[in-house]
Amino acid sequence: MTGPLLMVASAAAWAAGLVLTKVTLDSSGAEPSSVLLVQLGASVGVLAAACLVSGAWPRSGWRQGWVGLLEPGVAYQLALAGLALTSATNATVLGSLEPVMVPLIAWLLLRDRPRPRLIVLVAGATIGSALVSFSGGNDSGSLVGDALVVASVAAAALYVVVASRHVTALRPLPAALGQQVWALGFVAVSHLVLSGGAFWPQLGFDGLLLAALSGVVNYALPFWLYLSALTRMPVARAATYLTLIPVFGVLGSAVLLGEGIGWLDILGSALVVAALLFDATTSAPAKPHAKQPAERSRR
User: Fold this and answer.
1) What's the CA gap between 132 and 296, in Å, rounded?
2) pTM higher than 0.85, yes or no?
3) Poorest-confidence range of 5-19, 52-66, 80-94?
4) What b-and-e string marks burial along 87-124, b requiring 16 or more CB atoms within 10 Å of the CB?
């Protein structure tokens, strides 16, 4: 049960981070690249401190962190740009496509053919997730914004599959740090280009604090939890738990933004939770990935 619990916590953190990010974008009026730069900087700082305190500093394996260019690098650069143009409801609906994309990419790249049971599980959870998402308000969307969000979902799904191969060599905490250091470098260069050479983020003091908090919640915590879960369960099964993000997102919006909860929210949430409970109670526990001997000897 450890793997599913880690994935539930990861989905909750990602949902809370999405709500905080939307609040930051709306309240500060800053460019998405500025917000993302502060978020990743705060996340890297927290992960580095955690690695130092726990003695898990990545003495090697920095090169493997390139997968962070996919997510949070490219994926979140596109997602924040899309979120600034489209509605939060549209972004959540399109984000529900990720659990569907992951098994397909894993099948294509890893030859990991999804079993019929997994297909039914993903379908049920995704339908419930979409019901929750479509029940959102009447905010207008944007074709360009929606396209950017879809591109970010594709990059995130590719990250999920590729990252599943890297957890065999590094422990989750240093792996998350290495990936986000690469992502921070990519985002810093992108910000310089998009801002015309102005490196300092265009945020006030309150905006900086809010962006930093949302960065820790949206990056440091969920990525560490997610990579920890991958050492305990297959990537395709872990992806199904991402369908909880809209469910937690609706709850977070109700608590933090005062938005209402409709009957579609309740029905969709019940369907997602039922599918995941069925998976958690009927699946045989997966064996953790073995650490490579060379990596173990360095710790």
Assistant:
1) 43
2) no
3) 80-94
4) bbbbbbbbbbbbbbbbbebbeeeeebebeeebeebbeb
